[in-house]
Queue: 2 jobs
Job 1
Amino acid sequence: MENEKKFYKKLESKGVSRRDFMKFCTVLTATMGFSSAYVSKIAEVFAAPKLRPPVIWLHFGECTGCSEGFLRSMYPFVDELVLEILSVEYHETIMAAAGVQAEEQLHDAVKKHKGKFICVVEGSIPTKFDGGYGKIAGRSFLEIAEKTIPKALATIGIGSCAAFGGLPAAKPNPGGYMGVGQALKLKNIVNIPGCPPNPINFVGTIVNFLLLGKLPTLDTQGRPLFAYDKTIHDQCPRRSHFENEEFVEVFGSEEAAQGYCLYKVGCRGPETYNNCPVAKFNDGTSWPVEAGHPCIGCSEPDFWDKMSPFYEEF
Ligand code: SF4
Ligand code: SF4
């Protein structure tokens, strides 16, 4: 109770009202597919956390856009809230340590929290030439992953690179880049693809773990069903235009202004599983198709090769 009071006081000091926070918890509960009865329980996960699992966040072949997306575009201060319910032991983008000290921090964290930490992996892993296409402190990404991930309690691959290889794995892929699950032959990795993924799907996965003590149910690609069980097309507000064969054929046209379907300018919504139309981005402001841009299928395996050339009808 005391901790909860402190929590809400801290929120207020940052200009976030209890009402705003509950609104966020309501959105999160709905995204996770839970009934409204869970809203207060989910609020408690943040306000009075029972445990703060250690997290080791590894970066491999990627652009850090997933970390940036998570840290910069959430509902106000939710990035901070999540960092408070987790004990982030290692994260190259946000930690103060560098060089030798950073390496020591990684080794010490893996040793200290063996079997208890959540390993979040951002980026894909080069597998050819002994992993020679990517190294940190003289160790290949492959070696770092092999030495770290098997010691984790759970592994989350954040972003399409970690999940399926992403851009580094696009043809001709000389380094043999692969998604983390494929490179290490993992059966139980949670994949949260997207380029970048929606931060709310990552938060939902973590909150599911803290609330129920287990990771969410996954599809055959390792993606949480709560976020990836439907296609973009099946949730799209432009769907009636598709059914009526009302298509945008040229950007900037009258049809585009009318909000017609983007299929003929390359929308891959029918082939893409993700919750963008309901979760949206930037505090629920909008999402690509709402802004007039076709879905490019960023959360599907091999999307750079399979979904391109972009802007052309399949
Ligand atoms: S804009 Fe894309 S996702 Fe929406 S209805 Fe058209 S094809 Fe489907
Ligand atoms: S609309 Fe499509 S391309 Fe855009 S973020 Fe969602 S899944 Fe990725």
Job 2
Amino acid sequence: MNPLTKTDPLKGRPPVETALFDFFKIGPGPSSSHTIGPMRIGADFIAKAAALPRETLDRAARVEVELLGSLSATGKGHGTDTAVLAGLTGNQPESCPPTVLETLRDHPPSGLVVPIPSHPLPISPSDIRFGPVRHSRPYNNTLVARLLDAGGGVLFALEYYSVGGGFIQWEGYEEPHRGKPVHPYGSMRELQERLQETGLSIHELILENEMAITGLSRPEILSRLNRLMDAMYDSVRRGLAHEGRLPGTLGVWRKARALSEHYGQSNFEVARLLGRLNAYAFAVAEENAAGGIIVTAPTCGAAGVIPAVLYAMKHDLSLGDRALREGLLACAAVGYLCKHNAGIAGAEVGCQGEVGVASSMAAAMLAHANGYDATVVENAAEVALEHHLGLTCDPVGGYVQIPCIERNAMGAVKAFNAFLLASAEKLPEHKVSLDAAIVAMNEIGHDMNIKFKETSGGGLAVSFVEC
Ligand code: SF4
């Protein structure tokens, strides 16, 4: 533990109970809160409607959805309407091929159906409506789903919240019953205390908690972790292979392949490594912008940072799979703490919670995979997060392209630099704890004007004029 950390700003927080495969989700871009969350909401509404009494279902004629807050403000550019429709027509993010979203967006077929067992109902894109951006619901990203009778009367309605990273909640939501962590911690300080008490390394502690929370065995977790890493590598490879313009009105060109070719042959060692790291981050962020399959790390918008660093560690720094897997578990611990004590959605805390948190997690991953102790891991994560504090979310035109794609590359490079700074420090030199940086992110995020929180109402989104 950092001996200079005298204050304990997160003292008394309840323990983290996030599970690995809830946090890292495989699914289509471009936004975990605007695409994956709403698709899951659509699918969840089918399940809840199916459980209604038969006499209610007998009167049901159609389903209608109203998008509110940031889901309304930037929903068109993010494809939120299409994602809800995909969910309501029976798709799930993990198994939905990207072509389904493209088809629903560009050539929606007639005769779409909400597959409520024994009571299928018709639905069309016009049943997804864009409502008010400003509202008084508890979460910015709110969606109201309604089951209507033939006269438009409401038979059943539920308010849903897409709370970031593809997580969803609804009115009256209660956390599902799960096991409790065997090594409880609610802050980095407490995590460091558990590590000292048990003598475990971070990855071992996270693994033991994961087994206790989910009931999964160690081999099951490791095997799913390998699949997750493969999905990250695949997203880098696909992005490096693709060229052309991204979808949307901005006309943004893909650059990952050109960056990789340009820097791959450089005689300058630093340019070769940083150039490739940039290319990997661009590759995934461009795949995400195109609606391709990525891993929320911790969100879709920031999905390029961690895979870029992971891919570079494997292919450019030649680290072994075991070190990478263990690094990813340490990286998860930092993400859990940020989500638990602040937020990871651009709509809640700005981009500091997306690219900032991803960079912080990647810095921790680099430190742990390279064999540094938990203090260096914390300090690397802190440095990366500290230098993203205040970062706003202002996607131009509501597309996760400008500034998002370059920002992923900046997050990956900053992660690497944070790791270099932290790993060269002598212990008493580091002044700021990760907990203090997380508390600052939370405060800044909550005081941030809503126009900087994924509504495309301020910052670059309005100062940049398309020609
Ligand atoms: S600006 Fe950042 S938070 Fe906002 S959509 Fe882009 S990546 Fe996500």
